[in-house]
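Researcher: Here's a chain I'd like modeled. Treat it as a single chain, no partners, no ligands.
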Amino acid sequence: MRNSILASTAAVLAVLVAYGADPAARGRQRVSGEGFVSEGIPKMPNPPGPAPKRDLSGAWVGPGTSNKPDPVPPMTPAGEAILKQRKAYGPATNPASTGGAPGVSNDPAITCDPLGFPRNVLTYAITNRGGVLFGSAPGRILIAYEQQRLWREIWMDGRALPKAVDVKGAPESRYYGYSVGRWENDTTLVIDTTGLDDRPWLDGLGHPRSSMAHIRERYTRLDQYNLQLTATVDDPKFYTKPWTFMRANLYWMKAQEFPETLCVPSEAIEYIDTLAKPSGVNIVP
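Model: Modeled as a single isolated chain. Structure tokens:
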């Protein structure tokens, strides 16, 4: 049976309490149970075997939380102006932050708009303990995400990233950008992404990223069952310096199988009408 991100009122309310800062994290999450040593971490043989060379293929699961990233650096005036226009979902649901007045949010994730990159990795793979599947096709590595059944192409054929987007003679920007990869050594894959559609938020708080932000992911396979992720953001249009946006550890999935977990627009509308508005949260474009 298909899993929906808004599968039930009880599940939604429970998750909103825990993950109110990001409405995109309303989906079903992996929790403790058979085959897990703790929340989100499956039992594996101890000690694990060595990491295979230049191979991340297979399905991995994110933890419940990421390791502490760097603080967001000071923003440029242009970045601060955009951030002021964005109203995050978490504060809108918190009476203390609204002074008891109805909360307002314009987070596009509420209506199932694409999260874009890298917010999809932070939410789908980390906060929501989603599955991440590495595969391959000619000239590229494919990364698929259980949440929303999303996928990305990481080109490994030496091509260059676009120098500009959305101008004459250049390609169009994309929600998930253009990505190229290379092996730094036998266990570390480095991915560079740019050419991003600038509408999606960088995170659940509404921080922006420009179309030519440069985002670098480093996936290091520590051993047979552990994969370390670090992501940095370099966006001089909106931030005064680069910073580490995300650190996380992914773990090998024992079952290697994904459920289907989707954000369904019609159910998002039902959620807004039956839960958000009656609770005092106003969703605005």
